[in-house]
Amino acid sequence: MKNSSKYFNLFFLLNTFCLIFPALAEERQEVSKSGEEITMNELEIAFQKRLTECIFAGEWNLVQDGKMGPWKKDKYTIQSATKTGEDKWVIVSRVQFGSVDVNLPITVNVFWAGDTPVISVTDLDFPGGNTYTARVLVYKDTYAGSWFGKGYGGQMTGVIFDQPKEEE
Q1: Residue 54: which of 8, 112, 93, 25 has the closest Cα?
Q2: What is the 3-state secondary structure (H, E, C) of 67-94?
Q3: Bridge partners of 110?
Q4: Rounded Cα distance, 148 and 162, in Å
C-alpha cells in the first residue's frame, strides 16, 4: 500500500496546476488531432501556460482510518497541458524513477469553480490494477487536494514554479 500511494502521488502531482488570471477575454480556437475544434478562453490559456515546463513542490500524507499520517516531501515536473475536449486535458509529466526517465501523458478532466481550475479523475486505472479518484484545486502558484485508492487516501499541497532554464 505504501508503494501504491507513492505511485499515485507521483502520478497525480505530475499532472497538476496553474497561475490564473481573473479576467475573461476572447476565446482562442485550435483543432485537435481528431479534427474537433478546441476553444479556449483566457483562463484556460493561462492554465495551459502555467502548466508548461513547471515544477510542483510540496508535501503529501496518507489519511487512513480517520487519522492523518506524517507529511512527506514530493517534487514533480510537468512538461505541458493540452486541452483536447470540452473538459478534457492531457497533462504530460516527466517521470524520473531510478534509471527511468520518460514523459507520461495522462488524460484528466478540468472543471472550473469560477476562476479556479479543479483537476478531477474518477476511478482512473493505474498500473498494478489500482484505481484512483482525486480532486486537486489549483490557484495562482499553489495546489491542494485529496486522493483516494481502495481502502485509503490522502492529501497533497504545495507550490508551483517554473523549471529552471538550461544553460547553453
Answers
A1: 93
A2: EECCCEEEEEEEEEEEECCCCEEEEEEE
A3: 119
A4: 28
108 membership: H or E segment, kind and range: strand 100-113
Write out the three cell numbers for 51. Answer: 502548466
Instruction: Kindly state the cell numbers that stand for 84.
Output: 483536447
Closest by CA position to 137, among listed 121, 110, 152, 117: 117
Distance CA 4, CA 119 (A): 20
Give the model confidence (pLDDT) of 122-168 as tens digits.
Answer: 998 877 778 989 999 999 999 999 999 888 899 999 999 999 987 65
Cα angle 34-37-40, degrees, rounded to a multiple of 5: 125
Here the cell at position 79 is 512538461
- The pTM of this model reads 0.76
